Hints:
324 residues; alpha/beta; Rossmann fold; 3-stranded antiparallel β-sheet; 9 helices; 11 strands; 42% helix
Amino acid sequence: MTLADPFWLLLFLPLAWLVWRKEAGISLRMTQPNSQMDDPSLRTKIRGKLSWLRWLSLALLVLAMVRPQRKWEEEKIKADALDIVLSMDISPSMLSKDFEPDRLSVAKRVAADFVAKRPHDRIGLVAFSAEAFTQCPLTTDRRVVQTFINELAVGRLEDGTAVGMGLATAVNRLKDSPSRSKIVVLLTDGENNAGYIAPLKAAEIAQTLGIRVYSVGIGTEGVVISPAQRNPDGSYSFAQRYMKFDTQLLEEIAAATGGKFYRAFSERDLEAIYAEIDRLEKTKIEVSTVRRTTDYFHWLIGAAVFLLLIEILGTWGLMRSVTP
């Protein structure tokens, strides 16, 4: 709440004080026959208070002249948003211990942070190992996407790495999108060894539909502590294993679609990769600000007039103390 013309207070407050002092100095109290000064009637008490209505009315009029008002700004956002599908590998090798605590946990956390920075885009999630499925369709609800990312777990699908299936499923989610910009962030840690759709064939389909693919290879090559076998209860036994990575395949997928290939050997690398993708794929946003003002002086004037009418009617009508 603000005052549009506060300088009126500097003029009226001293003037009101002088008038009040003058009235207080010339006040005269008269008695009437048969009146009891020690026990004034209710009518006398009310009449004595009527003058306060005049002062309250004056205060309201002065407040109306300084024009109290409420101001606020309303932002209208027009966003040329992107459609993004995160396609994430959940094969057993994503539990390898070259990341702390493992590759999948770090990938989930960094992906959730990426989603949090894209308030205007539609984002979906695909998970794949030997087969692929849509974990979350395209949505603008970031919390929903982050919840599904956090629920990703190894062991829900058959073991293996079907890069082509993961990419094709993501492309299928975007093929009917009306968005001008359609993107797949494909994250995997191994070689393609499963699935009935070849990765380069899926990349060709993506290129035809105008979908860019940013391929991300996570993990180190060489000997790492990784799942060696699945136990009957669904858990995994770990052992030192030699891990290979098909860098060339991911480079070809990215190049075919106009995207870019990245390699993440650490959590910091992965954070930097998602930060770069965030910079490269900026949503175009137009923000127009509308300033609005609501004045309240008319309510104050109405209240002042109402109180003056009560004071006049009381003084010269119901509460008159002088009779003919």
